[in-house]
Structure formats: structure tokens, C-alpha cells
């Protein structure tokens, strides 16, 4: 049980340097980035608190090995890499840091969108090769077009605001409408639609939903077929929300116009999406801004302090 003694903390993904320094000032901190499951199982044996992001799987095996483990701090939003059921039965509390990265992720989604609709990455590549071919670049504008938001949490709500700023019509789909947020959506003029209606009417479909049993494979062949052939798909959530093979085929065959993907099933591997001209890829950097990482770092140290005081940090 938490007392006033220092904790043994294991950090397995990069967290802000200031947060690390604060943790180190009071606790014993072991940093081992991206360990294998076997390494993690042996490291975790005498650990009280695990700090992780999305890069490491925290399986039942890991939780079983963590004899003293009391708390997992997810230094980010998605908890899909943590076996939450196993954590619950092991009596390990899991907390995350929702909201802190919402603006950064929303801004990246717009960056990916503009990169796709205006051919920014392709253009940059050509200019660097000494090719100057304006006629290759007939883009489309966002103003007057429809932005379809799948997931209207912190990121989706911010995207709605930005989308309105671009002069877009904004529609959204959400599995369980949060009454508190309804007002905010209404403020940003978001019309709630069923998923099929959203897919059929949107020029841009942006995914920012957590990966859960409900959203796993949410966008597959028939959903992609329901989209306009001129539509662009943006995924800043998790690769698992979309069926990879089906998205690849839809993009290759021009059944949708393009995609901006910050998440890939093959994280760290190149993958075949790189073969396609109508796709812009980033290496899961939605939350990677100085502002956001500093905020998350603060929340991580706050969560550890609260835990030490015997308080339970709110989860999501
Ligand atoms: C998140 O869920 O917060 C993001 O995937 C970012 C991360 O953890 O690196």
C-alpha cells in the first residue's frame, strides 16, 4: 500500500525530461524504453508504478509478473495496449491523461488532410528533385465541404471547431452521445448522423475514436464503399479501427481519393501504404509536440503524487 516512502517506477516509453527529473527527485526510476515482453516481465518484478505510452503491450503475463505493481500511468490517451481486465483482477489501477493531447492530434489531422488535398508532400518531393510541374497539382478546397467526425471526444470536438473555421459543414458520429458534450457540439454546429449517413455525405472522414471491441474493424469494405470516391480518410486514432487490407485496396483502386494516416498496423515497419501516391503517412506523432508532452508529463507526476497520498486518479 502506498505510504510516504519513495516508489520504484519503471518508464518504458519516452516522457518529458522535466517529468522524469521530478520523478527522479523523489523516487527510484528505471528507464528502459520499448522492452520486449520477456524483458518487461523481469524488470517489473519489483516495480510499484509503470509509466507507459502506446509503444509497449501490457499483457496479462506482464501484470502477473508485477508482484508489487499498484499503478499504471498511461502517459497519453488510448489504453488499448493495456489488458484492462487483467489489471482490474490484479488490483492494478490504470489511469490515462485524456484531453492533454487533443489539440495536437486535431492539428495533425488537419495537417495530414491539407497534405493530401493539396499534394504538399508530393510537391515537396518534386521540388527537391528539381521538377516544377504545377499542372500535376490540382487540389480541392475544404471550404464548403463536409467534415465527418467519427468520434467526438476531446479530439473530435476540437476538430469540429477547426473545421468550422475552415468553413466546412461538420457532421459527427458517436457511439454514446455524452449529454455534457452535446451542448459543445451544438455550439460548433455539429449534426449528429448515423455512421452510414456520415460516410455517404462526408468529403473528409476523420477517425479519432478509441480502439475498443466496438470500434475494432469499424471501417471495412462496405464502409469504404459507402464513401464518396472523392473522399479523403484521415486516421489519427489506431490502425485497428480500419481493416488494413480493405483500406489499401480502396486507395489503390481509387474507390476513395486519398488518406492521411498517423497510425499503421505495422508500427515501425514501412508497410505497403508507402507504395501509394494518394497517401500521406506520419509515424504516430499526433501527441508529439513540446506543449502536449510537457502537459502530459505534469499529469504523470501529479498521478504518481496522488497515488502516494492514497488518492485514486480518475480514469478517462
Ligand atoms: C495516445 O494514445 O495518447 C497516443 O497514441 C500517443 C502516445 O501514447 O504516444
Automatic annotation (TrEMBL):
GO MF annotation, one: oxidoreductase activity, acting on the CH-OH group of donors, NAD or NADP as acceptor
UniProt KW Protein transport keyword: no
CDD domains per record: PGDH_4 (cd12173)
Keywords: NAD, Oxidoreductase
The D-isomer specific 2-hydroxyacid dehydrogenase catalytic domain, residue ranges: 9-316
Source organism superkingdom: Bacteria
Regions crossing the membrane: none
Pfam families attached to this UniProt entry: 2-Hacid_dh (PF00389), 2-Hacid_dh_C (PF02826)
Keyword Nuclease recorded: no
D-isomer specific 2-hydroxyacid dehydrogenase NAD-binding domain ranges (all copies): 110-286
UniProt cross-references to InterPro entries, sorted A to Z: D-2-hydroxyacid_DH, D-isomer_2_OHA_DH_cat_dom, D-isomer_DH_NAD-bd, NAD(P)-bd_dom_sf
Family: Belongs to the D-isomer specific 2-hydroxyacid dehydrogenase family.
Protein name in UniProt: D-3-phosphoglycerate dehydrogenase
Lineage of producing organism: Bacteria, Bacillati, Actinomycetota, Actinomycetes, Actinopolysporales
